[in-house]
Amino acid sequence: MDPRHQRIYAAIAAIPAGRVASYGQIALRAGLPGRARLVGKALAETPDGLELPWHRVLHADGTVALARGSSGFDEQCRCLRAEGVAVRNGRVSMRAFGLDCEVDLDRALWGFD
User: Fold this and answer.
1) How far apart are CA 25 and CA 10, in angstroms?
2) How many Cβ atoms from other residues are within 10 Å of residue 85's Cβ?
3) Domain boundaries in the chain?
4) Which DSSP state fits 67?
5) What is the DSSP letter of 55?
6) Hey, CA dihedral for 71, 72, 78, 81, is it positive or negative?
7) Residue 49 — left, alpha, or beta (φ > 0 → left; ψ -120 to 50 → alpha)?
8) Is the pTM of the predicted complex or chain greater than 0.90?
9) Span 3-110: which CATH code?
């Protein structure tokens, strides 16, 4: 497995339930600033059996990345709502539900503040 993908998967796994992060935030947390598209590629290539909270990863403006009306779009919205995240018109308020607490991700990934 690509070591960059491993770092991306670790960053995604560290997103707490009820919170969301953008592709760019995940790239930054994985030590890959500016590589938001690589995050999308890694998600598309997630190995079978690897359980990730993929539904917590959104565009920077809080919109669901999958096509509106697709089964993936509906599943992502359903999973987010099940965690208490408000989804309106395919968008989540990054201010209300986003990872504005970078310290939490640092602690989850690396064990320090």
Assistant:
1) 13
2) 20
3) 3-110
4) P
5) G
6) negative
7) left
8) no
9) 1.10.10.10
